[in-house]
Small ribosomal subunit protein bS6
Amino acid sequence: AYPINKLHKAHYVLMNVEAPQEAIDELETNFRFNDAVIRSMVMRTKHAVTEASPMVKAKDERRERREDFANETADDSEAGDSEE
């Protein structure tokens, strides 16, 4: 990322939508006249993107690792309790 209007922090939003052209035009107009939106980009694709984004995939993998670790820890704890 790089500074825009001397700002170094920002929020990024990715929206994947199917909508009629009139709705897209209205969305672009709202972005253009909203002072909170510094930069926007609308891209048209030939095919809908239906798979999870890389960020969502990474988040899901981290959650699964945490759950696996928690389950292993709970199993180890139960095994230790039964030995006593």
Observations:
- The chain has a mean pLDDT of 85.
- The longest helix spans residues 54-83.
- Helices lie at 21-32, 54-83.
